[in-house]
Design goal:
Length: 962
């Protein structure tokens, strides 16, 4: 029966001609000289046999998955099996292939033809050595050769000489030998040196590119925070560390983790799990003990040894041989392992041909051990074993009871397909382990002359050996370019990169200092361009804030800076209102410049100098708003700007002496703080604490613990805490802390005292307030009232529900502004600011953001009032000048001196945050009658104003309790 020529299972695969002598003629010529139909069928059968052999040894793609392969048993006369062996070896040229000739030691029951003192397993070791050497000798161009580290480790252990056989001393001797082997970088023997360089070749494709790529990506990602030298060193560190890693992995001893496989495999292991070794040393002791038992009694011949010892020797020898074979097969499994989470092992994906082991001589002991290990472990391996030998009464390769599917060569494909169907019964190693192909003597001439193209599979494109090096080279090059470009260039015009990696300076509104602010800054930039394009008169206001937190901020790099975001939103609303009301051009519009002083205003002095240069070059700049934190750097920036009498209106800074001159003898006349000072805030808060709020369930406090941040650069917390202690009087004690950890310790100390405070006043910053509340809730101060300052406003906004449901801690805080303060105001005095704010947030699709990233309304309304006060003064000055035009015919320019004079005489404004009256206070510099609100969170998570001092609008009657 003539079978059709099957198509290749790998479409598009190349056809590589087999390196055999070309035939003397084609089928037509053969048919002419020998028209016998049986000859033609034999010829087609041999062709089919060779094609199917290619299908068996060519590795399927990852999508199709690896399949276990059977033992291919080729029987027939010697001349036929020899020709088969030659043909198969030729077809495997360039791929891993080992050819083992017959050996008398392979036959079971025959005496060993070795030296008298050689161990019983020596013959198997010799065959496996030859097999590993031949399989590792050939590899496709550019690919790493197969390696056998586990098998080499077993051989090293079998050759290990330890003088004492006592268990304890044996353990110590093995441990010492392993320690010495661990220190070796390059071993002394020739084979070890070859293994070392083979390991270097293999591992250089894994750790070295991985380390280089990792450091390159880190260098590029952190380029903004790294100096040039450190960035370059970080990128170069990858190849250096990777090279050291490769050298360590390439040693004869490559670490405990690789050899823990010995403690997981089944051979030479105790039956009870609790007695199994837990490290390579314990396993080595068991192997050496088995070696001693195997060598103690000869397996053949008669001597004085009893049967029990002989049986122990037989079992020990079988265990060692099984271990050797299992290590050999495991090395092949690892060399061909394709896992997505091990995609970095490129060479395993690049191997497209299974290793072939050709064994002459029938059922050798090596083949028997291989099949026994496969059957016991049920683990597939990539080794294709081909056994050639005589037929007739010859036993098949073991296991002997395994069913054999046999047939002539022309049925090879049918047998192969039938064997594949049997995989459904046992996917691990196959239900039928042997495929027998029966050859005849007349097949030998056909095998010598036939020419069947060798079918293979292309190496996957993504597994090309050059690809990882190209990717790593590109990543390293791009990282170098990014690091050098980032370190040597500024962020933009008038914006430079500080030592912390932040972009510091003044922007026209088109530079995004932080991604959280990108949408709001985009609106400012758009409105600025519209103002310049309109041709109408305008005044330029510099907003001075902390628009980045990527430095070493107390808040941290993950802070969305919603307070600054809110102030920008307030400026956007004021700018939009002035644009809409510009009318015929007689009213000024407001152009905004954005000045970033960095995290915690760390670079405020440098930015103030840049602002002075901008003011000198741009006559439209009329003043500065912002500077909303009471810090030493902010105070220094105000003093610098005061030298040029630049009008300044701070938004939320409350330190009383923030606006004093450098000598401290007088206030700066050009500085106008909008927020109520600490002295007033402390007096009002202490009064509320002493009086209590009976209707809110807060009794009068006789004692109070005041928590104060002792950071030297923070002027706000220390001053406010000290003023509250003085205002509260007897019963108030101060507890200073430097960070969140110190704050928790102070809470524990205060709450473990015999007399616990009636009230806790928190004078610190919002960054530590969450840790403070958690510490209070978990302390012994149960059902305690916490009164905090206005700096925690945004924390309360973000955690309203949690604070309202907290039964252990009642949180109240003194706020400078709150939307809920307007709930009980008559309709004709209400503000529509908060509705406009919500509309702005919705139009920018920011209402979908997490609550912790939405701009703060409380900060927005105060920034809007500060900008409105400055622009009202500018409009007064502009009108007083008669609206003069510039010399070049452009819109008129407002004089800063006139703006400053107008601020000194500015009339009362019913602001959206409350009454705005910049003068009239007893000290002559602070705003008068600004609202001070005591806010709590009800169980529903809504903020409620429970006390008020100051006025929201001019006609509001003053509170009788203030």
């Amino acid at each position: 029966m003539t079978s059709a020529v099957p198509s290749s299972p790998y479409p598009g695969d190349p056809v590589v001609p087999a390196p055999v002598a070309p035939p003397s003629g084609d089928i037509g010529v053969i048919s002419k000289h020998d028209p016998d139909e049986s000859y033609r069928r034999r010829h087609e059968g041999i062709r089919e046999f060779l094609r199917v052999f290619d299908q068996m040894r060519v590795r399927p793609t990852w999508r199709n998955g690896d399949l276990p392969v059977p033992v291919l048993w080729v029987t027939g006369p010697y001349i036929a099996t020899t020709s088969v062996a030659q043909a198969l070896e030729a077809r495997c040229d360039g791929t891993p292939f080992a050819h083992l000739g017959p050996s008398p030691d392979d036959e079971e029951g025959s005496p060993p033809s070795r030296e008298r003192h050689a161990p019983p397993y020596a013959a198997l070791v010799t065959r496996l050595r030859q097999a590993t050497r031949d399989l590792a000798a050939v590899a496709p161009p550019g690919e790493a050769h197969l390696r056998f580290p586990l098998f080499a480790q077993v051989l090293w252990l079998l050759d290990l000489q330890v003088t004492d056989d006592e268990p304890d001393r044996l353990h110590d001797g093995v441990k010492k030998a392993v320690r010495q082997r661990r220190r070796q970088i390059r071993a002394g023997t020739g084979q070890d040196r070859r293994n070392f360089w083979a390991n270097v070749r293999a591992y250089s494709e894994g750790p070295l590119p991985a380390w280089a790529a990792a450091t390159a990506l880190l260098g590029a990602g952190w380029a903004d925070q790294l100096t040039t030298l450190f960035g370059v060193c970080a990128i170069l560190a990858g190849p250096v560390i990777g090279s050291l890693h490769v050298l360590l992995l390439s040693r004869s001893w490559a670490g405990r983790r690789r050899y823990m496989w010995f403690c997981r495999q089944p051979y030479l292991m105790p039956g009870q799990r609790r007695n199994q070794p837990h490290d390579i040393t314990g396993f080595a002791v068991r192997l050496l003990q088995a070696r001693g038992r195997a060598e103690a009694v000869p397996l053949h011949g008669a001597d004085s040894a009893d049967d029990r010892k002989r049986q122990e020797a037989v079992q020990a020898n079988e265990g060692i041989e099984h271990l050797l074979v299992n290590a050999f097969l495991e090395d092949l499994r690892q060399g061909y392992e394709r896992r997505l989470w091990k995609v970095w092992r490129r060479v395993a994906w690049a191997r497209t041909s299974y290793p072939v082991l050709l064994v002459d001589g029938g059922a050798t002991r090596l083949v028997a051990r291989i099949e026994e290990v496969r059957t016991a472990t049920c683990l597939p391996d990539p080794l294709l074993v081909v056994v050639t030998g005589p037929g007739g009464g010859q036993a098949p390769p073991p296991p002997a009871r395994t069913p054999v599917m046999s047939g002539p060569p022309e049925l090879t494909e049918e047998l192969w397909q039938q064997w594949g169907a049997e995989l459904a019964r046992d996917r691990a190693v196959g239900s039928h382990r042997v495929l027998r192909i029966e050859m005849e003597a007349k097949d030998a001439p056909i095998l010598e002359k036939i020419n069947v193209p060798v079918r293979g599979r292309r190496r996957p494109v993504l597994a090309h050996p050059v690809l990882p090096w190209l990717v790593v080279t590109a990543l390293v090059s791009l990282s170098f370019v990014r690091v050098l470009a980032t370190a040597t260039t500024n962020c933009g015009p008038d914006i430079w990169r500080a030592s912390t990696g932040e972009c510091i300076g003044i922007s026209e509104g088109d530079f995004v200092f932080d991604e959280h602010l990108s949408r709001m800054l985009g609106v400012i930039d758009h409105q600025n361009r519209a103002i310049l394009a309109s041709g109408h008169p305008y005044a330029t206001v510099i907003y001075f804030g902390k628009l980045t937190t990527t430095g070493k901020s107390s808040v941290g790099a993950g802070d969305p800076i919603t307070d600054i975001h809110g102030e920008l939103a307030g400026l956007v609303l004021e700018q939009r209102k002035l644009i809409d009301n510009s009318g015929d051009g007689s009213k000024l519009q407001m152009r905004i410049l954005i000045a970033n002083a960095g995290a915690d205003f760390r670079f405020a002095e440098d930015v103030a100098r840049a602002a002075l240069r901008r003011i000198q070059d741009d006559p439209t700049v009329i003043g500065v708003v912002g500077l909303g934190e009471s810090r030493q750097q902010v105070q220094a920036a105000i003093q610098l700007l005061a030298r040029k009498a630049v009008p300044l209106i701070s938004t939320t800074a409350t330190f009383d002496d923030l606006g004093r001159r450098e000598g401290g003898d007088a206030y700066i006349p050009s500085f106008f703080p909008l927020a109520t000072p600490n002295s007033r805030l402390a007096d009002v808060a202490a009064q509320w604490a002493r009086e209590g709020l009976p209707q809110q369930g807060i009794p009068p406090a006789r004692t109070a613990a005041v928590f104060t941040d002792t950071m030297l650069s923070d002027l706000f917390s220390r001053d406010l805490g000290a003023r509250f202690v003085r205002a509260f009087g007897k019963g108030a004690t101060s507890a200073g802390y430097a960070n969140a950890a110190g704050l928790e310790e102070k809470v524990t100390d205060v709450c473990t005292r015999p007399e616990k405070p009636d009230l806790v006043y928190y004078a610190g910053r919002t960054a530590q307030f969450g840790a403070f509340i958690d510490a209070i809730a978990k302390s012994q101060c149960h059902q305690l009232t916490v009164m905090a300052n206005d700096d925690i406003t945004q924390y309360v906004n973000d955690h309203e529900l949690q604070l309202g449901r907290n039964n252990r801690v009642r949180v109240t805080y003194v706020a400078l502004a709150s939307p809920s303060a307007w709930d009980s105001v008559p309709r004709r005095f209400k503000t529509d600011f908060f509705q406009e704010f919500d509309a702005l947030v919705t139009s920018l699709h920011m209402d979908r953001l997490p609550r912790t990233e939405v701009p703060s309304k409380e900060y927005a309304v105060q920034a809007q009032d500060a900008a409105e006060a400055l622009m009202r003064a500018a409009q007064v000055a502009f009108s007083g000048q008669g609206g003069p035009s510039a010399v070049d015919g452009g819109p008129g320019v407002v004089e800063r001196g006139g703006v400053l004079l107008a601020l000194e005489k500015l009339e009362v404004i019913d602001g959206d945050s409350g009454l705005v009256k910049l003068h009239g206070a007893p000290d002559g510099r602070h705003a008068l009658d600004r609202p001070i609100l005591l806010v709590t969170v009800n169980p529903e998570g809504r903020q409620v104003v429970i006390r008020q001092c100051g006025r929201l609008y001019a006609q509001q009657p003053p509170s009788p309790t203030c």
